[in-house]
Specification:
Helix content of chain A: 40-55%
Largest interface: A-B, 92 and 93 residues
Largest sheet of chain A: 8 strands, mixed
Distance between the termini of chain A: 27 Å
Number of strands of chain A: 8
Number of helices of chain A: 15
Shape of chain A: elongated
Oligomer: homodimer
Order of helices and strands of chain A: EHEHEHEHEHEEHEHHHHHHHHH
Structural class of chain A: alpha/beta
Chain lengths: ~350, ~350
């Protein structure tokens, strides 16, 4: 019997638990811990987890795989607390939205025998908490994984197996590179929504201005109504990424302001080019991904199955959706990141 | 018989035509003109308009009300072209997204006898054109109206009547004030979406970064896939508004960057305050409007009916939804704008 322990049963942790539970895999026991024991007990009652633990130490003591799904600033503490209690050969992963800082915490807290493989599923929704979690939250979603250089193939495949079971698309990425990318595509949008709302709200004309605010303004500021703790944690754990891209977006806005003195043609081209490029992105991105997945499938599926949870997984894999694979998305990216996974690649 | 002529049968013009046609009002003839005659002919075939005109001059020659719903930079030309042909007592309105410039064009082009009442419905959708127009596009939407100081009560009520028939909420506003407000709540969001997309797209890391881009990024850049001509026109006709608010949003972003060195509490408060304020805005704004409408109804309904289209309107009004009224939304706003509509207010 293999035990997976999920620490933190909020939207993400709850969705992982529900997604794995929905597979109904024999030989896999899902355990859970939440700071609020009532949530763990409720998840147990609902049959989402086999056991809800009252304390973190007992929750992880027998786990083969520990998934830390707490708010990102809570991860350091969890790592410190579990380090003396996890099994020597355990695998630890997380779902935090910053990865560089988390990897530094893990290196400091965990014994060398333990494989830490940082993770970040690119999925979520506005409503937080276990009540809003869903077994299908990760279907089709990118899931960043950042193995430490010392992580062995088996451990990486274990995490890949979990992601595959949840329907996610794994993307291998360096932790610091991850932080720069998500700052641009995820943290800056949050900041723009908040800044836009604050700018208008703090204007002396807000009372009148707000009467004109249509669905466009509401959409554009939607992210400002998100979880303030999560936003705070992004700022605390990814300051370099956020700082860099604030400078870049200010540059873009300055460039846009200079447009105001340009010819109608130049102004039109500015917006038309963005429109064309975005339309291409929206239309081609999913296709590109799907194509790669299919190319990777024959070897990928075999690879993923060589994991500690046993050969029953090999059978189960035949029921899995197409998106499972173990290869990084991009040869260049893998090389660029200097991650050595030659063994994984060549066995297929 | 009263004739309304709609110039430009795109998303907005088409929706106005369909909305009025859906009322099936006897005594009202809807005429249409589009640069592309095939569109006007098609609208006529569909029964949306009574007559589709081949030339602009004949389209407006007998109109009591002319609605210019072309792209905003086309309005100057339309005004010049119709000025010698509209009836002396005609009312002219428009739907352009900038109002200061349009009012200056109208003052230059139109004879003094003609009442120009600028308008801007705060409604739209991504898909443009007559094919995407809808009779319900304006239901519940704010509709800015900017009467010239010389516009008489009857003319204002005519435009209010049209807005009421379409289900819109009229908001009286000064043209330059309008331009500042919509720059903040509508033009800057468009620019932020475009700048965010360009920032990422132009990054050397885009190839890898785009793999992580989830629905959040797609939502945040959605407006960048809008109509580039409309975006250009905003820049051309509202440069002061756009310029002012670019400076303001850059200030906000600089402030947010300074947060990075602050305490966890300060960072949390920044996001939590925005969240609370936005939640209040989202929850209370519609209520506040509905309440005012009901207060205004008894006099408002009577007022709106005193329009040139005849007393049949008085009867039709009884079928109209609650949102009809003729009073400005806000006493202070009206005073602030220095618009004298005492007569309108006191007759009810």
């Amino acid at each position: 019997v293999s035990q997976v322990t999920i620490v933190g049963l909020g939207l993400i942790g709850g969705s992982i638990a529900k997604g794995l539970a929905a597979r109904n895999l024999k030989g896999l026991e899902i355990h859970g811990y939440d700071r609020d024991f009532a949530i763990a007990r409720n998840a147990e009652k609902l049959g989402v987890i086999a056991t809800g633990h009252r304390d973190l130490q007992s929750a992880v003591a027998n786990a083969s795989l520990v998934v830390i799904a707490t708010p990102v600033t809570g991860i350091a503490e969890v790592l410190d607390e579990i380090a003396p209690h996890v099994r020597a050969e355990a695998i630890v992963t997380d779902t935090g939205s910053s990865k560089g800082e988390v990897h530094r915490w893990a290196a400091r807290a965990l014994p060398e025998s333990i494989s830490f493989i940082g993770g970040h599923p690119m999925a979520g929704r506005e409503e937080q908490g276990f009540a809003n979690s869903s077994p299908t939250l990760f279907e089709g979603a990118a899931w960043c994984i950042c193995p430490t250089p010392s992580a062995d193939e088996q451990s990486i495949n274990t995490v890949l197996g979990m992601i595959a079971l949840l329907g996610g698309n794994p993307i291998f990425i360096d932790p610091d590179e991850h932080d720069q990318y998500v700052a641009a595509i995820s943290h800056i949008p949050l900041l723009l929504a908040t800044s836009l709302f604050n700018m208008c709200r703090r204007s002396i004309a807000w009372e009148d201005m707000s009467l004109l605010a249509a669905s466009g303004f509401k959409d554009a500021t939607r992210l400002a109504s998100g979880d303030a703790l999560m936003a705070r944690d992004i700022f605390l754990t990814n300051p370099e990424g956020v700082s860099h891209w604030i400078d870049r977006i200010i540059e873009e806005l300055r460039g846009a302001k200079e447009l105001l003195g340009k010819s109608p043609e130049e102004i039109f081209n500015y917006f038309a080019e963005a429109k064309v490029e975005r339309d291409i992105f929206i239309q081609t991105a999913p296709t590109r991904r799907a194509q790669r997945v299919i190319e990777d499938m024959p070897s990928g599926r075999e690879e993923v199955m060589r994991m500690f949870m046993g050969t029953w997984m090999m059978e189960k894999a035949k029921e899995l959706p197409q998106q499972m694979r173990s290869k990084p998305q991009d040869e260049d990216l893998r090389e660029k990141l200097g991650l050595n996974r030659e063994g994984v690649e060549k066995k297929g």
